[in-house]
Amino acid sequence: MYNIMTKKEYEKYAEKIAPKSNVVRNTARAFVVGGLICVVGQVITNLLKSKGYDMDDTSNLTALIMILIGIIFTGLNVYDELGKFAGAGSIVPITGFANSIVSPAMEFKSEGYIMGVGAKMFVIAGPVLVYGISASVVIGIIYYLLNF
User: Fold this and answer.
1) Residue 30 maps to a domain
2) For a surface tag, which of 19, 58, 63, 124 has the fewest beta carbons within 10 Å of its beta carbon?
3) What is the pTM of this model?
4) 23-81 pLDDT per residue, tens
5) From CA 144, how far away is CA 133, in angstroms rounded?
6) Range of 104's domain?
7) For 139, phi and psi rounded to 5 degrees?
């Protein structure tokens, strides 16, 4: 009736039908796309500095603009296609983080703005934020106690 496979037979079968990945091509794509995202950030920084903004304002505005670009591209489904093409190259920290916040929110938009978008917005990014904030509080307390 049923063909029962041993573990070894199953491993051979899975290896045979699994798609082969091209490591060199995938690495090159990730490098180029990640690099281009960083180049866009650098161009924005240079433009802001040329307009006379100081370094603090330039850094903050660049981060905000890159987040906005990530959000817009996610909303237009461009970022998902970029992720399929570039893999890890598309998760350059600031735009990838924006994408990870917006994607779940868009997925649950049909459930409403409060229970859908609002509740699901931090599904992926929430633990990162909680850990980051908690770690900063603990480190701040340790720093305070060591310099007391």
Assistant:
1) yes
2) 19
3) 0.67
4) 899 999 999 999 999 999 999 999 999 999 999 999 999 999 999 999 899 888 898 89
5) 16
6) 26-146
7) -65, -40
